[in-house]
Amino acid sequence: MLGDFAEVIMWKNDLEFISVVLFRKMDSKDKRNASCGSSAIVHNPHLDALKDDILYHFSLGTGTHDLRAIFGDVKFVCVGGSPWRMKSFIEYIAAELELEPGTVVVTKQSVDATFQPKFEQVILGKTVVRSTDLDQSLAEELLQCSKELNQFQTVVGNTMCTLDFYEGQARLDGAFCSYTEKDKQDYLRKASEAGVCNIEMESSVFAAMCKLSGLRAAVVCVTLLDRLKGDQLSSCHEVLQNYQQRPQILVGYYIKRQLKTKAGVSQV
Amino acid sequence: MLGDFAEVIMWKNDLEFISVVLFRKMDSKDKRNASCGSSAIVHNPHLDALKDDILYHFSLGTGTHDLRAIFGDVKFVCVGGSPWRMKSFIEYIAAELELEPGTVVVTKQSVDATFQPKFEQVILGKTVVRSTDLDQSLAEELLQCSKELNQFQTVVGNTMCTLDFYEGQARLDGAFCSYTEKDKQDYLRKASEAGVCNIEMESSVFAAMCKLSGLRAAVVCVTLLDRLKGDQLSSCHEVLQNYQQRPQILVGYYIKRQLKTKAGVSQV
Q: Residue A43 is nearest to which of B16, B177, B209, comparing CB atoms?
């Protein structure tokens, strides 16, 4: 379903729901169906026997839509937070903004709450462990893009992916809390020693599924607060809005640079 | 924050995002601040030391909003699927619909993928197991309401709560599948033998948090397909729409009956 240049980039800023943006090939010479050479691997033999594959949550189906014709030219898949943020990203691709500095994290490894780079799934009642390795060359390219942009600080580091927002992230401000401020600080310090730069809740399943599918994938986040200093967002709305635009500025810059490079190659 | 009659009812129809509806006391004689006697337990001593408690995802905070004044008279909290469904529920409360029969499941126990009534959380890197017991008397009251309504079949049974929609629910139609149709059938049959009537993905954390908080809670679902016969939704949109209204009809009936009973008591 993905185009032959398809890359999957996930970015997020907090814990809102996930939306998806697809970027098609912008070269009109490209044919919609030219993407049969996609290297994405589908690990399910049962799909061949399926008459119609209904993607219920997207209101799409193989019986009702020609998915190859609709999505065959997709070049970049971006998965992010709330719909408004994805809309703002689409708008941004056409109109860049000058932003104040901050810290963007490009994920090296997505680790679990014990700092291991793994994603545990339960399949037919049995626990299966999957690797959460991300594409290191894509992470390096994104870091390089940030240097070229020179608008905000960007680091490559580990992202801790937890199962919940409060106790799972050692917060003291949830409805439940059975540990002390010191327990929290000790845990977050251990996380930091394990190379964790930020915490969120979706990167491990994203990394594991992309890895299994043979897709080049990256996770780009922005840190909204220093968890060693507090649990609640204390910055004003405007500052947070600014922070939240940083991952999209970086990913937008990368996409444009990629398209320019491809265009340069095809002109030669 | 909850009123003294507050009850939490969660219902859902598929795996879309969660929305919340609050039902206030409808008796104007009730005072907004009359709810100090709420029996809900807050298990976090750190909250007392917090100057402002910002509920970021709801755009609410103790510094900016008088939460007791706004929510002190809440009587029923209903948590459900997508915003459109919750909107439809609010509209429904005023205008009942006649619907075709089907199967509504009121959850007895929310069980995990190994059919155990527990919810595992990772806190400070350590696994903590919490009970997912729901209020049996509330489940029985809802079953009784369904008998009075006499519009569709309702059963009390176990609900299996999984960590993902595809492999976690033994589906054959996901992007990944490493088991056979027979493995799937064997697993679902074992689930059925363990009393599982339906599968979804949110009931265990809901049940565990309500149990910990001392809140009377129920889960009301509607089954959309027979998983022993297939994985994809084959019913037409209209039929599915009908099915999805059933939990709200049942919960709406229960709420009205409760309000009528309370009104009857206060008139005496």
A: B177
Does the beta-carbon distance from A172 to B46 stay under 8 Å?
A: yes
Asked if B216 and B207 count as a contact pair (C-beta separation under 8 A), the reply is no
Cβ-Cβ contacts under 8 Å, A167 against chain B: 121, 123, 128
User: What are the structure tokens assigned to A9, written together?
Assistant: 């980039």
Nearest-5° angle of CA B44, CA B82, CA B18? 15
As averages over each run of 10 residues, the pLDDT of chain B (268 residues) reads 55 51 53 48 78 76 86 74 68 44 85 97 96 95 95 93 92 88 93 91 91 89 83 79 87 86 67
CA distances to A46, A132, B161, B233, B254 from B126, in Å: 37, 20, 21, 38, 40
CB contacts of A112 in chain B (<8 Å) are: 122
Cα–Cα separations (whole angstroms), residue A7 to A1, A135, A142, A251, B251:
12, 10, 13, 11, 45
Q: What stretches in chain A show pLDDT beneath 50?
A: 1-5, 14-17, 26-37, 94-101, 268
* Chain A residues within an 8 Å CB radius of B12: none
Nearest CA-CA distance, residue A243 and chain B, Å: 16
CA closest to A40 among chain B residues: B175
Q: Contact B44/A17, CB-based, under 8 Å?
A: no
Q: Tell me the per-residue pLDDT of A68-123, one tens digit each, with 9 for 90 and over.
A: 888 887 777 766 666 667 777 666 654 433 333 368 999 999 999 999 999 999 99
Q: Which residues of A touch B170 (CB under 8 A)?
A: 123-124
Residues of chain B contacting residue A208, judged by C-beta atoms under 8 Å apart = none
- Closest CB from B46, B115, B232 relative to A173: B46
**pTM of the predicted model over 0.90:** no
How far is residue A220's CA from residue A254's CA, in Å, rounded to a whole number?
12
pLDDT digits (tens, 9 = 90+) for B51-82: 888 776 677 888 888 988 888 877 777 666 66
Tens digits of per-residue pLDDT, B208-217?
988 988 888 9
| Yes or no, beta carbons of A163 and B121 under 8 Å apart | yes
